[in-house]
User: Fold this.
Amino acid sequence: MLLRKLTDTLLINNLKHSACNEFRNWPKRSFSAHGSGQVVSQPQKKLTARQEELMKRGLPKRTKIPNVENIIVVASGKGGVGKSTTAVNLALALSDVESQNKVGLLDMDVFGPSIPRMMNLSGSPALTKNDYMIPLTNYNIKCMSMGFLVEEKAAIVWRGPMVMSAVQRLLLRTEWGELSHLVLDLPPGTGDTQLSISQLVEVTGAVIVSTPQDIALLDARRGAEMFSKVNIPVLGMVQNMSIFTCPKCGHQEHIFGQDGVQNMATELGIDLLGDVALDPKIRQCADEGQPIIISHPKSAQAESYRSIAKNLMQNILLVNKSS
Amino acid sequence: MNCDIEDIQECPADSNLAGKVAVCDGCPGKDLCLSQVSQPDPDQQVIDLRLKAIKHKILVLSGKGGVGKSSVSAMLSQMLANDGKKVGLLDVDICGPSIPSLLGIADQPIVDSQWGWKPVLSSCGKIKTLSVGSLLSSGSQAVVWRGPRKTSLIRRMIKDTLWGRLDALIVDTPPGTSDEHLTIVKLLAAAKPDGAVIVTSPQKLSAGVVSREIRFCQKMKVPVLGIIENMSGFTCTCCSEVTQIFSSGAGEYLAKKYGIPFLGALPLDTRLIVAQEKGLNIEDLHPQSPVVLQMRKILREILVMVGEIAVPH
Assistant:
């Protein structure tokens, strides 16, 4: 007998029943959320009044971070396509193309934070009187990351619920001040972090980054579908690592494939914000903590990021007008 | 006044301090941890039984995304299958399952039977695979789940699948050090996995993130078999100049720092990318390409370490 396929697998909170038939026949036993394989005994007492109140509530309302006009998430679904690199350079480009823009950058990758190294920042953030964290600033961008709160080499081995509270703290308990754009660098995947963000704050829109490779596009498509399910508009896609030029002979090669992202963007009806070539300089500068827009401001790559920023700003205006 | 960074690294969920330390105060799972009454888990027996029939269990970890864990897992299992071994490939990346497309079985469903799920056999080589990708109704469906649900599915993937007698089970993991990793390490713990192979890309940025993964393995007492540096160098087809696009050295640096064997560096090869996109076996198509030769050396090292090949003195 053929296993019935999972139909709708989006589960926003544990109280909704899943539409997928697969799990109907599971034994009625609850595992602890921190499932070490131990069975939690059924609670003997009735639900307390507080628990009843919690269960009657629906999803929490999304809050708006005070004085932050637009929240842009840079996501992908697939790892290693250049989300952090794109987020950093996009934040710098937004600040560059329009002098009135005040930009913040928040690194939501709890397990593998890259922003501290890329922005050449380190140290613990100070706290205000109200216990809010003060973001560290470099190149005129305010940054916050899990990397500032833990040692560089420490392993952060957390299950979902703890990740949720870390995300909440980083997002809502940071003193951002007045910002025109807050860029969120998301981790790969479509899990706890992405869900928590979409449920906690009003996100203006998402930018999906991908390489032209089929495998990356598969996951990018899942990312796009996730955003449509949580009602976050996708403002555009960025094709990263599109073409490689041999530094010696100038021969050009599409290592990861050609036009994959362009085709997918057309298919999904999303704009292609821009194309970034595969250039060892981008990686080198990121490793040294001097993003390419700062170290080589007149290079073609810096220009690509600036044009992506301009296209993004246009799409943000359109989305804000229509909402 | 600075942030208090003590005790922020450990989630004490699986110890007797669960729900009781300061760091638990903000956690939504605190009440559940405090109400836990532990009993031996009846599923663990079935899981141990299934795992006992598998000779070698190897995890492929990274911590960083996009370094090539799935590609390396697929290549390892294809080469083992070419050698005539019985191989299984378990993909616990629930949000981004890549294994069905890499092995060319994207459209094949998982068949249920009265004894359990029958894993899908790959097209070339006889690799038994299990992935969330094979359970989804379409290739682009998104699985947007929180941790506890993923944990339950992974338990089921081991407990209810007819793995049968295998020489090796390769487990492909997602990036990070979260629910999926904790679950799979705990489930395999009683069955003593042979260890983990860590994949990294050559750049310094990856080294930072991957060192967290190595610390995770040390904490969870999973032996690290070695480090593979992937995407190390691209050879221009026109002039044969090798460019280190993603820089170099992270693999050797990590190996030296943590005292782990450096298994080898795999170069970037467009032929591998094309073969894997079509779900074909690169060893069959281009047996003399540098990436295949290097991978064979790495596989030999791994087999020596798990005791499958005896090294002649």
About this structure: Chain A touches chain B through 98 residues (CB under 8 Å). The radius of gyration of chain A is 21 Å. The mean pLDDT of chain A is 81. Strands of chain A lie at 68-75, 103-107, 136-138, 141-145, 179-185, 205-210, 234-239, 244-245, 252-253, 272-275.
